[in-house]
Design a protein that fits this description.
2 copies of one chain form a homodimer. Chain A has 496 residues and is mainly alpha-helical. Chain A is 64% helix and 3% strand. Chain A has 2 domains: 146 residues, no CATH class; 322 residues, Orthogonal Bundle (Neurolysin, domain 3). Chain A contains 21 helices and 3 strands. The first copy, chain A, has a 3-stranded mixed beta sheet with strand order 1-3-2.
């Protein structure tokens, strides 16, 4: 069937909206990676102007009318989905009054500085009043966007994981806790203690090895680049997907595994076809699915015995003095389990326990069941409950993450969802393409990428996230594959 | 006096226009310096969307009404000038129909590829039809914007040199020809032949030396950065002014003097105060004045005996095998006069003759007195007339410059104006601050920058370009100082 002319006009408009968001992404990348310090004031103004322009275009009533008409017209499947997705975003934007949107933008921009200072001073009370304002505004925003009997938290969650219901997500994530806690305990009781790396690792050699890893994972340099930033991230889509990493002379694994993680994100975005890169369907479907791609490459592949065997050879030639001789030494080191305070440094066993803590605290904050005044004490109490150690200072506790200062409530659970999806996808992939260890150990990862390309990347936002996962794995979303994977892997490693 | 509230609203609006143009500049920088190859398609879309948004805001009738009201209100001097400049730009933009503006944008974007291909094939006829279209459209545009009995060419010229009249500019530039030609002849007849550099110059050492030069010229790294690009350029303003250079192992002077040239541009922009960086007055006043800053640092300072004595020491330690021992060897090399085909490689004696050729040809093209079909033959005939050598191929002749393919008619003369202004400014500066050679020879250039800061940079667009120069030098614009400077310098160098 051929779509009406109004559809083509809509696509042109959607294209311009996408272009504006890509410009904002590029300016943010520039700010983190390239911009000289004194450029900050002008950049803030540029971002504000761009956001206002984008918001005006996104909420234009004429665009809304066009979408309302198109949604009832006969369209082919792809066109229908494009219109639905565009209408979802338009409705989301129009439901929030301009006054509220701009207040949230202003406070979260300011809050970043307040939070960074409070963290550096280990003083939660300096950040608390700002956080209180943010939460009040986010509750107000949630009231604008929630539908039917949806909770405020669920409404915010859906910005990151569209369609995910809280009565599905909560038992799914809470269900991780008993078996993760048991695994944690068992490992703590194990006599086995893998060593860690020590020494000084040339940063240029780290970068060279990071690039070799990017090569072996089929990162497309023609459509990307690798730079340095304080916190590694990936950004952009389709033909221009950039990643960053960081360098610590004492810890080359931070650089290498950050690179693998960001490459996982980047491969997803590079897998969006250029023909669809300007359509609403040509977009990652959710943060959970995005994270599944980074975590699959970082953990299921990157921390596998097979990949470590490939990496060990290259690591040993990059760092001849590292003394890594035993072929499984690196495998043991990158899978070392240790209780720590910091989420971003956590091993696979502890990581989701960090998420669960934030998930329950932010649900209570948004529900109004927990006061910001009690947040630090509650964080510390529950952290000790879950991890068995006492938080010594706010920078290692409640102030460690940037998310809340940026107004990102409902974002944390998508990290755990990503881990869950990744394990399901891995099982399904092996079921289809057979064992991959020999290939991976020899630096051949193309079959894995091809499977992800056709099952996830090229699908863009054609389906809802849960439907997409189910279409790949032939079963509903479940934490069983993740828990089984972790128990088997670490039982062997720690001789449990 | 206090300005009306409408003025503050106007300033906010002007600020958003400036922010949009800065975003476009940053995206262009990224495209030349950072963007991966496959990013081109999306970037073209982003630039087009941004240009459309900026054009819409610039030509908004409500903004025009606001400007018309403000222009008749009592305002302080700075405010009055801000409104005048904003109205000039608004009027310029509204006079050109959107259809024509978009046709020019489309053809010039496309023409870049056609021109680059034609140049690489040395085939002017492949570019001629496109150039013909561009000229027709620029003539049409000139008809929209010219005032009273202004010629089309003068109208286009004023985009780059506001207020400059053709009956002033033409005799000024044509007046250069006889004495430059005589100087050229005299040098050609001189027995003196300075050597040139030969060898292989480590590119990393070139970059290190380029950074040392930036340091010594007081380039503010806190508000800038230095990268590589195919063609050196500078971009940005106030707190974020970036420069690029390029590396040729056989010719380190290309890197070093390109860097000095771009630093000259950058110092001007870094000298715009951050308080005014979002106001219409907080903007470089003309391309001629901009070029005066780059040329003053590149030639009057950078090619002086004093600076060459500083540079020779640093050059010798960066390139110990270069064999540069005699303290005046570098001075002679960087001032070597040689007839060549390429404008951007020309010495100070030949440079303005290259400009004069383009100035007369483009005037005739826009006036309709010269057909594109005859352009290559006319270029070659007049080049041989002026330079005494025959153009061997189009890439060394009529196809060498990008300007016409970009629709930049009226731009070339600003290069010569820059040289003229620079010589006048240098004389005035020395008259005020006294001899500077000892300072320069010891790497102390701050007094020169300070003089330029208070006389040019901090003035922004407060005055028209010619009034600005006259206010600094106490005399009207004149080519005498430039010609005197060249004749004295090269008579001594070539023992004429």
């Amino acid at each position: 069937m051929s779509n009406p002319k109004a559809y083509d006009e809509f696509l042109e408009y959607a294209k311009s909206l996408r272009a504006l968001s890509e410009i904002a992404a590029n300016l943010s990348w520039d700010q983190e990676v390239m911009m000289p310090p004194a450029g900050g004031t002008a950049r803030a103004e540029q971002m504000a102007v761009l956001a206002a322009v984008a918001h005006e275009k996104q909420t234009d009533p004429a665009y809304g009318d066009q979408l309302s008409e198109l949604i009832d017209m006969p369209l082919d499947l792809l066109a229908k989905r494009n219109v639905e997705l565009a209408k979802r975003d338009h409705d989301r934007a129009t439901k929030v009054p301009a006054r509220l949107a701009s207040e949230i933008a202003r406070i979260t921009s300011h809050a970043n500085t307040v939070w960074a200072q409070a963290r550096s001073d280990d003083d939660f009370s300096a950040f608390a009043p700002t956080l209180e304002t943010i939460i009040a505004l986010k509750r107000e925003e949630a009231d604008c966007i929630r539908v039917d009997d949806q909770s405020r938290y669920a409404a915010l969650l859906n910005d990151f994981e569209p369609g995910m219901r809280l009565d599905v997500l909560q038992p799914l994530l809470e269900g991780l806790r008993p078996r993760l806690a048991a695994l944690r305990e068992a490992i703590a009781g194990s006599a086995h203690r893998p060593s860690s790396l020590s020494g000084d690792f040339d940063t240029q050699a780290q970068m060279t090895l990071a690039r070799e890893i990017a090569d072996v994972l089929n990162y497309d340099w023609n459509a990307g680049r690798l730079d340095l930033s304080v916190h590694p991230f990936s950004t952009g889509m389709s033909g221009d997907v950039r990643i960053t990493t960081r360098l610590d002379p004492a810890n080359p694994l931070d650089c290498l595994y950050s690179t693998i993680h960001e490459i996982g994100h980047a491969l997803y975005e590079q897998g969006i076809s250029s023909q669809e890169a300007f359509m609403p369907v040509g977009h990652h479907v959710s943060m959970g699915v995005h994270e599944s791609q980074s975590r699959l490459w970082e953990n299921q592949i990157g921390r596998s015995q097979a990949f470590c065997s490939w990496l060990q050879t290259h690591f040993a030639s990059a760092f001849p003095d590292s003394g890594l001789k035993d072929p499984t030494a690196l495998y043991r080191i990158v899978n070392r389990v240790e209780t720590g305070f910091i989420r971003t440094e956590a091993d696979e066993v502890h990581y989701n326990l960090h998420i669960l803590l934030r998930f329950e605290l932010e649900r209570e904050l948004i529900a109004g069941e927990l006061d910001v005044g009690d947040l630090e004490a509650e964080w510390n109490r529950r952290f000790e409950r879950d991890f068995g150690i006492a938080v010594p200072k706010a920078s290692q506790g409640v102030l460690q993450d940037i998310h809340w200062s940026a107004g990102l409530f409902g974002y944390f659970p998508t990290y755990a969802l990503g881990n869950i999806y990744a394990a399901q996808l891995m099982d399904a992939m092996i079921g289809e393409i057979g064992p991959i260890d020999d290939d991976i150990a020899n630096g051949r990862t193309k079959a894995v990428l091809d499977w992800l390309r056709s099952n996830i990347h090229e699908k863009g936002s054609r389906m809802a996230p849960d439907a997409l996962i189910e279409s790949c794995v032939g079963a509903p979303v479940s934490s069983e594959p993740l828990l089984n994977y972790l128990e088997q892997k670490f039982a062997a490693l720690y001789e449990l």
